[in-house]
From TrEMBL:
Domain of life according to the entry: Bacteria
Protein name according to UniProt: Chaperone SurA
Tagged with keyword Nucleus: no
Subcellular location: Periplasm
Protein's GO biological process: Gram-negative-bacterium-type cell outer membrane assembly; protein folding; protein stabilization
């Protein structure tokens, strides 16, 4: 059974969420006149079209349709969104240069998922886009870019982010002593590398002004983050989500011990600039961690007949039927597997797969292994790999509480490290690139 990567997860999760948030914007401004396209920004050898920027701005406005007062002025919003698009262009270019490619089949699958999440079909999504004057090919390319960025981020994590067992041990010990988790938000006023005295003074004056607005209840924290924060999560109200103590820099962790939900502290000077930190709420995670978690595991052997260009599905099915008949006639399963299985990884072991949870090899394999009893041989079944039969050797209930907790802690530490490292990586790319944002003003529309 292969271990699961600490950064494994659906590549589609982020882009589906984006598409869902964007969906209301499809119906926005349908009757409005549309200007001729132009260039909103130049990014190295690529460009951001005005139509791209308009669409992205409309999507953000749709997300804040019920809270329009939280958005900054139009020119500020357009510049914030343009900066996001710049980072996407830079990441896609870096990914392409690293050999990362996203095929049409993956894009088609992602679009089908987005359509399903929006309770429509791909054709229905295409028609909705067309009705709003949005180009389906452009939409496809934006989805391709989203997946590409996710792949680059994963590649970066695998090559740059390592979590040691000692780090996991220390974090688990800390959790045992303090099971509190913190929901945080922040506002960042960024400073350039090597900032001079004047830049530091300007940044400090700005963050103190923002803090004053919040303290005087002239603006809530989320609205201030959207309007003034230089952080990449500004348009999310500066929300940092739930974090355990081991995910928080030590200087902040000490402050949080004495804070009450709703309290804001700062300004705090950090490597990236000045920050305000808000404790939104807390929760006790120790009880959930203490609950016993069990999973049913199975031990099984299998025989695989692959579907290949020279052995089609019908031929593979006929062969697996013959092998199943041999086993039913008294032949030993492991000997047939050694002789005829086309799974190179298990053939020499008589098809032995060891102990694994039912879902380890996909839903079809899970259905087969759970549908037979110990010692029984399944009917032939098909997966993406080809046609199989399996012999279930045993089943057991396994306590995976500690194993799961370690995996969760490892993933948590990895995400924290990745967030810090990847943000620096983005800043470096942005600093090294030629970027000319030509206008942040909204384009004039014709009558």
């Amino acid at each position: 059974m292969s271990p699961r990567s600490m950064f494994k997860g659906s590549l589609l999760a982020g882009l589906i969420a984006t598409a869902l948030a964007a969906a209301p914007a499809f119906a926005q401004d349908a009757a409005a006149a549309r200007p001729l396209d132009g260039i909103a920004a130049i990014v190295d050898e690529d460009v951001i079209l005005t139509s791209e920027l308009d669409r992205a701005v409309a999507n953000v406005k749709a997300q804040y349709a019920n809270q329009p007062g939280q958005l900054p002025p139009e020119d500020v919003l357009r510049r914030q969104v343009a900066e996001r698009l710049v980072l996407v262009k830079l990441q896609v270019a870096r990914a392409n240069g690293s050999g990362i490619r996203v095929g049409d089949q993956e894009v088609n699958a992602a679009i089908a998922n987005i359509a399903q999440q929006n309770n429509t079909t791909v054709d229905g999504l295409r028609q909705r886009l067309a009705a709003d004057g949005l180009d389906f090919d452009g939409f496809r390319e934006s989805i391709r870019d989203e997946i590409t960025v996710q792949r680059l981020r994963q590649s970066y994590a695998q090559s740059r982010v390592q979590v040691s067992e000692s780090e996991v041990d220390a974090a688990m010990a800390a959790q045992a002593n303090n099971g509190t988790q913190y929901h945080l938000a922040h506002i960042l006023v960024g400073l350039p590398d090597g900032a001079n005295a004047e830049q530091i003074a300007t940044g400090q004056k700005k963050i103190e002004g923002v803090k004053g607005l919040i303290d005087r209840n002239e603006m809530d924290f989320s609205a201030a983050a959207v309007r003034y924060s230089d952080s990449p999560n500004a348009l999310e109200g500066g929300d940092l989500g739930w974090r355990s103590q081991d995910e928080i820099p030590q200087a902040f962790a000490e402050m949080l011990k004495n804070m009450q939900p709703g309290q804001v502290v700062g300004p705090i000077r950090g490597p990236s600039g000045f920050q305000l930190l808000k404790l939104v709420e807390t929760r006790d995670a120790s009880q959930a961690a203490a609950n016993t978690q069990k999973v049913t595991e199975y031990q099984a052997r299998h025989i695989l007949v692959r579907i290949t260009p020279v052995q089609d599905a019908d031929a593979a099915k006929a062969k697996i039927d013959t092998l199943r008949a041999r086993v039913a006639g008294g032949a030993k399963f492991d000997e047939v597997a050694k002789e005829s299985s086309e799974d190179a990884n298990s053939k020499s072991e008589g098809g032995e797969l060891g102990w694994f949870p039912a879902d380890a090899y996909g839903p079809d394999f899970a259905k087969a292994v759970t549908s037979v009893g110990d010692g029984e041989v399944s009917a032939p079944f098909r997966t993406e790999a080809g046609w199989h039969i399996l012999q279930r050797e045993g089943s057991r209930e396994t306590d995976v509480t500690d194993q799961n907790r370690r995996a969760q802690v490892r993933d948590t530490i990895g995400r924290r490290k990745l967030e810090d490292e990847y943000n620096r990586f983005l800043q470096e790319m942005r600093g090294e690139a030629y970027v000319d944002i030509r206008t942040a003003a909204a384009p004039a529309t014709g009558s």
